[in-house]
């Protein structure tokens, strides 16, 4: 649609809408699913080209129109505005990454931000941090992705962050070319899901009951009994615990605020935890000055003693779900217990229902067969 691009008209835009300006030919504002971006779309050098100016909120409509006029003027003179701007700005991938972390990643949850920082530090910046943003090509991302082929999940994750980084750069007007990660095909990922059997749960509980660090032992029991994520338990505060109602009222989690329903066993574990004076954390550090940070280190020793060397801490969440399935809990209820926002996240456990149904059918079959044998014996 067409209208004069102004704060009023941009604020009124609906998602997935493109607004063309009536004052500057080719000047537009595009409302994507999460943000609104200004740009110019014009013929240049025999083909249609797009120049991204910046994101609404970071710049005003008037500032965007001023830049649009400059771009149109450069095009009219037969000059490509993008190389001129790249040359004057001289922004490298490392510099773009810094802005990306300050502005985009700042809105992420702390663990997600740390993950972005880690991927940038270990993989992305060593590969092309010194290159100009506009100089990074598709083959550069392909090369990095190929080097990480031995760890396909990590390779795909790094590729997704590169894509987000360059989309951010385009939205901010730091480059106008194609995203170098957009055509890199992801590797097939084999989901790593490990479920503890009833026997393995028993072995683990024996080790936990004997473990000297009582707070650590309690934390791992809570992971198994609640299906919570590690961070939800290690950052749990006593103010979030309602033993009378059997609830954990978490102000924040990966999916936002949520309430965790506690079983009587989980309530018993929480009631038995020794509270430290002046410490708000349910699972404190040994000094009591902060929350527990070394749970992964303790888990290495605990799982070794229990003979569960291939089990990760996150597998306790999967095991909670599989145990719920074996107990006949409906899939939708399991999703609610795990805090999933939609059923798709819980569907990964759907195949376990087949196992539970087969086990149930086999149990009935055994009873029928056994009765049949008894009837035959009695008839003799």
Can you give a write-up of this model?
The protein has 380 residues and is an alpha+beta fold. The chain has three domains: 7-89, Double Stranded RNA Binding Domain (2-Layer Sandwich); 94-171, DNA polymerase, domain 1, CATH 1.10.150; 198-356, hpI Integrase, Chain A (Orthogonal Bundle). The chain has helices spanning 7-11, 61-76, 81-89, 93-103, 110-128, 138-147, 152-171, 198-210, 214-226, 230-234, 264-271, 295-305, 315-326, 331-338, 350-379; strands spanning 17-20, 27-31, 36-44, 47-55, 241-242, 247-250, 258-261. The strands form two sheets. It has a four-stranded antiparallel beta sheet with strand order 1-2-3-4. A hairpin with a 4-residue loop joins strand 5 (241-242) and strand 6. Helix 4 packs antiparallel against helix 5 (110-128) and helix 6 (138-147) packs antiparallel against helix 7. 28% of the residues are buried. The model is unreliable at 83-89 and 372-376 (pLDDT under 50).
List the helices and strands and how they pair.
Blueprint: H1 7-11, E1 17-20, E2 27-31, E3 36-44, E4 47-55, H2 61-76, H3 81-89, H4 93-103, H5 110-128, H6 138-147, H7 152-171, H8 198-210, H9 214-226, H10 230-234, E5 241-242, E6 247-250, E7 258-261, H11 264-271, H12 295-305, H13 315-326, H14 331-338, H15 350-379
Antiparallel strand pairs: 1-2, 2-3, 3-4, 5-6, 6-7
Helix pairs in contact: 4-5, 6-7, 9-11, 9-13
